[in-house]
Amino acid sequence: MLNLLETYSVLPARDLARARRFYKDVLGMEPVEERLEGLLYRTPKGAAILVYETDNAGSAANTAIGFDTDDIDAEVAVLRGRGVEFEEYDFAELKTENGIATTKEDRAAWFKDTEGNIICVSQTVASDQGEAREREGTANSTVSD
């Protein structure tokens, strides 16, 4: 059944070449495969992302994909240095400050890719999660010291 299968994300792009440049130049990602239906990316931990061309790109008003990090401040700084502008939200249950929202479990920041997809970068701040990652040696950041 599906509960035993790996999942993958599918992101629409109005202009696949433009999306490819953004994912390479801004996010540092290269496709591992060019398919008839689009570009297939894989994260270092094996998650798959398929970016495909369609006129419907950018029509969703929700988060399309999320990236988990152990250092959101560093990730946000690097992305800002590459020209990314973070969304600012002011909802009753969620408010960002300098692009980052903080809850008792998470810190998160959202931005849009060139195709209008909303991308989230988040960090779990619950102490037991961070400690468990350190013990397991599964630190999760693209930023080096």
Main β sheet profile: 5 strands, mixed
CATH superfamily: 2,3-Dihydroxybiphenyl 1,2-Dioxygenase, domain 1
Q: Overall 3D geometry?
A: globular
The strands making up the biggest β-sheet line up spatially as: 5-9-8-7-6
Radius of gyration: 16 Å
CATH architectural group: Roll
CATH class: Alpha Beta
> Could you give the order of the helices and strands?
EHEEEEHEEEEH
Unreliable stretches covering 5 or more consecutive residues = none
Indicate the percent of residues in helices.
10-25%
Mean of residue pLDDT? 90
> In what range is the share of β-strand residues?
25-35%
Helix run count: 3
Kindly identify the CATH topology.
Answer: 2,3-Dihydroxybiphenyl 1,2-Dioxygenase, domain 1
Q: In whole angstroms, how far apart are the ends?
A: 42 Å
User: In total, how many beta strands?
Assistant: 9
Your description of this structure?
- This protein has helices spanning 16-25, 72-81, 127-136, and strands at residues 8-13, 33-35, 38-42, 48-53, 63-68, 96-97, 100-102, 106-112, 118-124.
- The protein has 145 residues and is of the alpha+beta class.
- It has one domain: 2,3-Dihydroxybiphenyl 1,2-Dioxygenase, domain 1 (Roll), CATH 3.10.180.
- The chain has a 5-stranded mixed sheet.
- The radius of gyration is 16 Å and the shape is globular.
